[in-house]
Amino acid sequence: xxxxxxxxxxxxxxxxxxxxxxxxxxxxxxxxxxxxxxxxxxxxxxxxxxxxxxxxxxxxxxxxxxxxxxxxxxxxxxxxxxxxxxxxxxxxxxxxxxxxxxxxxxxxxxxxxxxxxxxxxxxxxxxxxxxxxxxxxxxxxxxxxxxxxxxxxxxxxxxxxxxxxxxxxxxxxxxxxxxxxxxxxxxxxxxxxxxxxxxxxxxxxxxxxxxxxxxxxxxxxxxxxxxxxxxxxxxxxxxxxxxxxxxxxxxxxxxxxxxxxxxxxxxxxxxxxxxxxxxxxxxxxxxxxxxxxxxxxxxxxxxxxxxxxxxxxxxxxxxxxxxxxxxxx
Length: 329
Prior knowledge:
Layout: E1 2-5, E2 15-18, E3 25-29, E4 37-43, E5 49-55, E6 63-69, E7 75-85, E8 94-95, E9 101-105, H1 142-148, E10 157-161, E11 167-170, E12 177-183, E13 189-195, E14 202-207, E15 218-221, E16 226-232, E17 238-245, E18 250-257, E19 263-271, E20 285-288, E21 294-299, E22 302-307, E23 313-317, E24 326-328
Antiparallel strand pairs: 1-2, 1-24, 2-3, 4-5, 5-6, 6-7, 8-9, 9-10, 10-11, 12-13, 13-14, 14-15, 16-17, 17-18, 18-19, 20-21, 21-22, 22-23
């Protein structure tokens, strides 16, 4: 099953459940009271269990919800998660494989300077060479910009135990924007990427059992090019990322050694074509299935399913050619 959050919860929109092989819709999920837009969705190893984040546009606080499906992909239930109130807008969430814990970035965008998100468009990676545009962008001198510093707050990750409601936060003093999260199969490590930070940007892997200082408990994975959307392989030894490489630029889905960053395979690639929706990457989202055999990458209205055992790919269209705001399978 694949769940896609399609932005605003209007009739016929919201969350759509699809067959991951054919793209056929098996269910649509109406938003609960108080939720106007879904901002993120994540899957677990149980193909009938997903988690969602949603709220109202501009709302100071998003909430987490548990989405339960039948084995046929029909809606069984949608319930709020115990302890699942966030510190702000949630752009990414990741559930541990057993579904016990949900991780998300603490909202690190400073008050008054927030990345505008159009609920009709997918969540796109932030170009690490660019800064977000303030809601009301004043004209600042170089001296004022230096005084104000980064528009981002500290990079931090919150992890909620959905059974007890206990919440732990991995903190840091580094500023930037945490852009994606992916759990290892044993539920101990989290891969993530940082954008908007000249000295801390890139791909990292957090050991959640090594203390709550985020960067001290993390190791950086050096990947050639401009990488985003890290996904840990099922055995934890490999990492899959979207990366911009070469001149002219190519957007590639690659497999790297999780310890060294050494590139092992190019699984899918597209030559970058200038457009008005992304200045760096052609692929915008990446996730793997519960078995660890398949990856799915999103690009220009299609999902590209990659069989990691053979390298073969197949293409699944989204309805109307519209990319999901967020997807998981």
